[in-house]
Design brief:
It is a single chain. It contains 9 helices and 10 strands. By secondary structure, the chain is α/β, with parallel strands linked by helices. The chain folds into 2 domains: 152 residues, Nucleotidyltransferase, domain 5; 169 residues, Nucleotidyltransferase, domain 5 (2-Layer Sandwich). The chain has a 5-stranded mixed sheet with strand order 3-2-1-4-5, sandwiched between helices. Helix 3 crosses helix 9 and helix 4 packs antiparallel against helix 7. The chain is globular and about 65 Å long. 46% of the residues are buried.
Length: 337
Amino acid sequence: MPTILAIESSCDDTSAAIVRDGIVLSNCVANQEAHRLYGGVVPEVASRAHQLNIIPVVDLALKKANVAKKDINAVAFTRGPGLLGSLLVGTSFAKAFALSYNLPLIEVNHMQAHVLAHFAEDPKPKFPFLCLTVSGGHTQIVLVRDFMDMEILGQTLDDAAGEAFDKSGKLLGLGYPAGPLVDKLAREGQARFPFPESAVPGLNFSFSGLKTSILYFLKKEVAANPNFIEENLNDLCASIQAIIVSTLMKKLRKASKETGIREIAIAGGVSANSGLRSTLEEWGKKEGWNTYIPAFQYCTDNAGMIGVTAHYKFLAGDFCEQDIAPFADKGILISQL
């Protein structure tokens, strides 16, 4: 019954969790509000904030779980992908803690952890299943054969779905992060503006063209009516959300038909989007899928999912050495690690 201290610091959230026997006892996150001033994450600001937050967050996670440092059996950390400076803070802390208490280290792929976040709580998907992982930096369809056996069937060729939400929202004058604001406003609007859908073949995605089409559409309409965005904000958000969700779901359905798999899950920050969650449930009923949606606390970056993944790596004896280095390359496949 291993007790694992997990650290997540891939971007701008500093998180620590305690996971015992695969069960999340605590999952604490410190957010960085400073990035709102810049309209996006500033890597240097993020890494400095991680240095300030990591010790208090770990201390809070231990206290909430009622676990002493001496009771920890292993230390897990996000190795990548992510911002290199941010990853270095989490990696260095994990190494130091493990070295101080003579504990084994477990490195975790951030995207693999998003997938395995589904095993933090019931109901859990059955193997094999398909997982659509959607975030600010990634959009992937992953075939999950087992805890440590995953294959990327399709992924974005340029921008991620989360980036499309945020940058489209920025064009509308919304604050950072714009994705959740687009979701909120879309609930009060109608998808009546027909934005084009990418024609990328196979199971890959592309969202750069959508952002460009939205930009030129807004320039044209605002030139004719300076108040166009303000007068149609809810409907614009609903239209943008509808095309992104439709693109994701059509590719997911294609993957299901090609593989014959009907166990379908979503994960990542964009899986918190209400439009995507409700559409998955609707399509699941029509397609005969068993659908799985993670709890909100396991959608965004969090150490709970890192600890759950580390639990299965611990059972498999998959540890790493003290000289391991983080990686920032988001193109590294899950199957390569």
